[in-house]
Write a structure and sequence with these properties.
Homodimer. Keywords: Cytoplasm, Hydrolase, RNA-binding, tRNA-binding. This protein is 23% helix and 39% strand. It is α/β, with parallel strands linked by helices. The strands form two sheets. Strands 1, 2, 3, 6, 7 and 8 form a six-stranded mixed sheet that branches. The protein has a two-stranded antiparallel ribbon with strand order 4-5. Helix 1 packs across helix 3. The radius of gyration is 15 Å and the shape is globular.
């Protein structure tokens, strides 16, 4: 499982010209689910993201988390995070999980963040979305649950 996290001052998702979700200060998370992801991958990402210290403290040091500051998260499904571009010019998405399994994992991810008391908004899974954001920093971090040695 892979998450691209952006610290934002604001973010929103529109479908068919209508804003369906928006947050103020917090994090925009693009979530990709790959074939073979397990409960442990989900556990890892939820724990890591909820405790990720990417927000400034009183000394302007990134030392505070979403939980510390009671900030918001906007989660957007993003199967293209598993694009394979090694051959040719057309990305392959064979590593991306099938729609139903990916949807279930996406919804469980959101549920678990909410269970921690985090205010979570969401995109429209599988829809053609327009995502707007004001990146704060900019701070952009990629977290992958797969162990790479």
């Amino acid at each position: 499982m892979r998450a691209l996290i952006q610290r934002v001052l604001s973010a929103s998702v529109s479908v068919d010209g209508e804003i369906i979700s928006e947050i103020s200060k917090g994090a925009l998370i693009f979530l990709g689910v790959k074939v073979g992801d397990k409960k442990e991958d989900l556990d890892y990402l939820v724990k890591k993201i909820s405790g990720l210290r990417i927000f400034d403290d009183e000394n302007s040091v990134m030392n505070l988390s979403i939980l510390d500051l009671d900030l918001e998260i906007l989660v957007v499904s993003q199967f293209t995070l598993y694009a394979d571009t090694r051959k040719g010019n057309r990305p392959s998405y064979v590593r991306s999980e099938k729609r139903e399994n990916a949807y279930n994992t996406y919804m469980e991810f959101i549920k678990r963040l909410r269970d921690l008391g985090i205010k979570v908004s969401e995109g429209s899974f599988g829809a053609d979305m327009k995502v707007s954001l004001v990146n704060d920093g900019p701070v952009t971090i990629i977290i992958d649950s797969e162990k790479i040695y």
